[in-house]
């Protein structure tokens, strides 16, 4: 009995906490109240909230109702509301300077020691866009003084018609170009910056977000559109985590008459150790361009531009050093291209509309590649994995496993295969060339010869050239041969 009563109480307290959170937002303590005291507390907090709504504001240049109370440095919450700086949430007038001032104030706000050496801990300061739509005419570039533990969230940024086409709406790079060129890994610009719940409209002028030489950056629930360069550029640094986001040059839901003309890149990763998780790229010439190592992709849905129209879903352009994992993703009429893959894993993904994986030889290297347990669907009978050997054949092949994929309307390619042949004579041939990925390469063969004949022939493996396995016997017998081949084992 008491158990039940306790449960009710807990539920009531749960509701109470929820209500308090709703009323107070994130700048007041969450308390636990019950009954009348709770209702009274709500009324009191509401009143307090109304009177203190601008207590974290600085003096506002915009015509705002009533004078803002003085900013109490040190006791005020570190929330920097865009409108308090005169930013125009209707998107009519330019808000660049106001937003830059909010950012600059946040950087100069109280800090609690350091994250990485030299990176001030801003303690979770928030630049709140308050659901507004702001027009900006130049990039919101973070100050050069390294800082971290800061969030920009909750609104729309739109590039003006004179926004620089080489710029990004939000730019995590220091203002001086000289510190950019240093590739030192011991010094980062920013750490733990979070960009969340943002719509970024580049207005066909430049890109959305640029993250340079930063550490542990989060890009979460962002909708980035109308970019002409990159939706998101990540360069140097590491651990930029991009998740639950939507990127597209044009706002479309597929089958768009302009698709052949889509340009730009959804996400350009020129760095290591980043993750792209649950992200849709719905319009761009290249969905994700990767020129760094040890990046991971999961739950990515690319329908950015069909391969037939010259598009690529994920392009791994780092010959010899990819170290990339692509799992649980959806390549929708657009595929994956990997140059000289070394340590590449692609699994549990779905390829629709004749989308395929292209391994492109640059120096002939394919090592440590597994493409397993994927689904392919199409209607043109294309190979699920193809080789581009225009620059020379793959000739350094080691530990490549393409196996256990399933296909409908496409041709399975694999590095392991089984086959059989039946005949009455001295020679049996099983031709694996339609299925094996690499031409004229068999590293391992196993076979058995089965015959019900009264004689026991001697037999041997005679030839594997051009992926055709030939077994011969010394005398003619009616027999079946069963053969297993593998291209991928180490030589
Ligand atoms: C694509 O671009 C070409 C030239 O750049 C233009 O002539 C054509 O009309 C465009 N197509 C569509 C569907 O926008
Ligand atoms: C196999 O071929 C031989 C001679 O060509 C013939 O005598 C024999 O009947 C054949 N066996 C079967 C099972 O067809
Ligand atoms: C294996 O077969 C190919 C033709 O497929 C032939 O050119 C080659 O000489 C054969 N090798 C041997 C050892 O018989």
TrEMBL record:
In residue numbers, the region (Disordered) covers 50-91
**Record Pfam families:** Pect-lyase_RHGA_epim (PF12708)
Which residues does the UniProt record annotate as the domain Rhamnogalacturonase A/B/Epimerase-like pectate lyase? 83-304
What Gene Ontology molecular-function terms does this entry list?
A: polygalacturonase activity
Which UniProt keyword terms apply here?
A: Signal
Keyword Signal belongs to the record: yes
Asked whether the keyword GTP-binding is assigned, the reply is no
Q: Which residues form the signal peptide?
A: 1-25
Q: What is this protein called?
A: Rhamnogalacturonase A/B/Epimerase-like pectate lyase domain-containing protein
Species source reads Rubroshorea leprosula
């Amino acid at each position: 009995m008491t158990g039940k009563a306790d449960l009710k109480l807990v539920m009531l307290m749960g509701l109470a906490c929820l209500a308090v959170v709703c009323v107070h937002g994130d700048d007041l303590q969450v308390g636990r109240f019950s009954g009348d005291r709770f209702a009274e507390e709500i009324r009191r907090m509401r009143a307090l909230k109304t009177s203190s709504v601008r207590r974290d504001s600085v003096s506002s240049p915009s015509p705002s109702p009533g004078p803002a109370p003085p900013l109490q440095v040190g006791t005020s919450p570190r929330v920097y509301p865009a409108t308090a700086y005169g930013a125009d949430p209707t998107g009519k007038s330019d808000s660049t300077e106001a937003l830059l001032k909010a950012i600059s104030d946040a950087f100069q706000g109280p800090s609690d020691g350091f994250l990485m050496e030299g990176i001030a801990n801003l303690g979770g300061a928030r630049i709140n866009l308050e659901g507004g739509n702001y027009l900006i005419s130049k990039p919101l570039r973070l100050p050069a003084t390294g800082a971290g533990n800061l969030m920009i969230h909750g609104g729309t940024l739109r590039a003006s018609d004179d926004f620089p086409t080489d710029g990004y709406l939000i730019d995590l790079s220091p203002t001086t170009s000289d510190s950019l060129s240093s590739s030192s890994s011991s010094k980062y610009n920013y750490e733990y910056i979070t960009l969340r719940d943002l719509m970024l409209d580049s207005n066909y002028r430049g890109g959305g977000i640029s993250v340079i030489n930063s550490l542990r950056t989060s890009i979460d629930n962002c909708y980035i559109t109308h970019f002409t360069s990159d939706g998101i550029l990540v360069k140097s640094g590491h651990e930029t985590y991009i998740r639950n986001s939507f990127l597209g040059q044009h706002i479309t839901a597929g089958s768009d008459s302009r698709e052949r003309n889509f340009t730009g890149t959804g996400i350009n990763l020129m760095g290591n150790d980043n993750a792209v998780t649950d992200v849709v790229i719905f319009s761009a010439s290249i969905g994700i361009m990767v020129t760094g190592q040890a990046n991971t992709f999961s739950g990515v849905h690319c329908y950015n531009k069909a391969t037939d129209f010259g598009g690529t879903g994920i392009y791994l352009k780092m010959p010899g050093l990819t170290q990339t994992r692509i799992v649980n993703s959806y390549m929708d009429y657009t595929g994956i291209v990997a140059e000289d893959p070394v340590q590449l894993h692609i699994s549990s993904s779905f390829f629709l509309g004749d989308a395929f994986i292209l391994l492109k030889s640059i120096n002939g290297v394919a090592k440590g590649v597994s493409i397993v347990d994927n689904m392919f669907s199409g209607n043109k009978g294309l190979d699920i994995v193809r080789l581009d050997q225009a620059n020379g054949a793959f000739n350094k092949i080691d530990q490549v496993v393409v196996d256990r994929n399933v296909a409908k309307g496409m041709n399975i390619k694999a590095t392991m295969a089984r086959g059989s042949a039946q005949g009455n004579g001295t020679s049996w041939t099983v031709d694996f060339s339609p299925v094996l990925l690499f031409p004229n390469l068999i590293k391992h063969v196993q076979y058995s010869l089965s015959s019900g004949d009264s004689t026991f022939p001697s037999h041997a493996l005679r030839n594997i050239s051009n992926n055709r396995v030939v077994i011969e016997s010394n005398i003619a017998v009616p027999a079946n041969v069963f053969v297993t081949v593998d291209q991928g084992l180490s030589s």
